[in-house]
Amino acid sequence: MKKQPLFRFIHCSDLHLDSPFEGIQSIEPWVADILRKATFEAFQRVVKIAIQKKCDFVIISGDIYDGADRSLYAKLRFREMLKELNESQIKCFLVHGNHDPLSGWEPEITLPQGIFRFPGDKVNLIPFTKNSQEIAHIYGISFQEKANMNNLTKLFQKSSKEVFSIGVLHCNVGGLPKHDNYAPCSIEDLVNTGLDYWALGHIHTPIVIRKHHPVILYSGNTQGRNINENGPRGCYLVQVYENQDVEFDFYPTDVVRWFQKRIDITNLKNLDDLVTLLIKQREDIRRKAEGRHAILRIILKGMGELDQILRQKIDPERDLAIHLREGENEKNQFVWIESILIQTQPPIDIEQRRLVDDFVGDFLRNIDKINKAPNLQETLKTILSNRPEWNIIHQEMETILNNHGLELLKNAELFGLEELLRHEKY
Predict the structure, then answer these.
(1) Which residues, 6 or more positions from 13, have their beta carbon under 8 angstroms from its beta carbon?
(2) What's the whole-model pTM score?
């Protein structure tokens, strides 16, 4: 019989309640209505998971609302869902982040009992007691103002070695690119606090930074909001055992999932072949969405005879996207074609282009040199490990390099060639 955990909790973040969805073109009212409700329904799924799994508490690591001036509607909906947790005797610990700092305007709505909001002036410790035993310490601090550029980990200090400790923080670990560098800190900073689990927010993609002692996780947002937030979004169910071992499992909560699909036209003979392939890809995305709605951006890539037709004769919105959207309002789970981007190239002889003495030729010759290296995986690893992102995603990248190194290099060659020749077409 499997040993029972000492306690379990949900770690979620970046709810962005009442957030407008970005980048949707030619949207139908029925799609807009589903998107408008999606952030609320995603958190409702978090609440449902917490109740079904008999969690002891829920942690929200910032950006509950999308703006500093949170709407009354968002506040009321949030309170109703918190009441469901309270009625199931599930506590909730939350901090505010850069989108919803404490200094922002907020309607005077009282939070239910059992909900603890960390202040912004200092790190507070809230003990969690179960069966008359103090079994967890939750530490946290909210953003008082939006642009908090201080390393807040310096304010955390573990008070007891015997009690499992959880830090709740909205921050950027390691200066992750494409994210504002709010509350910047390093992995070493987090480890040095001595805390056992870090429930982080701010980065919208789920990331396992560290698996053991301490566990450091970004739960990501509960609902993707634009095409760059594709893939599953949700929360972590965390279980802690008497020996302070931690198990964590990701549970998707997104109502609508975003996808980008690159389609190669190189071997397509005519438009009929293209339309057939587009329909096939749409249905493949419907399956991959796993019972939820999907928004799909299609990017046509590659080099082929269809390039001239696509660029000179076709309106991708009028001639392709509208056709692919037909009938989706009758589906239980729609696939909405957000856009179709044409990034194709006319046919080119790569081997011949590799011989030309110019920048493009140099690029192709360097790719060929890497491809002929004695150990392709190690060569690619050496190149990629110079990137700052490597420290966080190195495990995933090493798996990709070991299994798909040659494919990765070929895709890089085609992508680079298409970009370099973008202005040489006509």
Answers:
(1) 60, 61, 62, 63, 170, 199, 200, 201, 202, 218, 219, 220, 221, 222
(2) 0.82
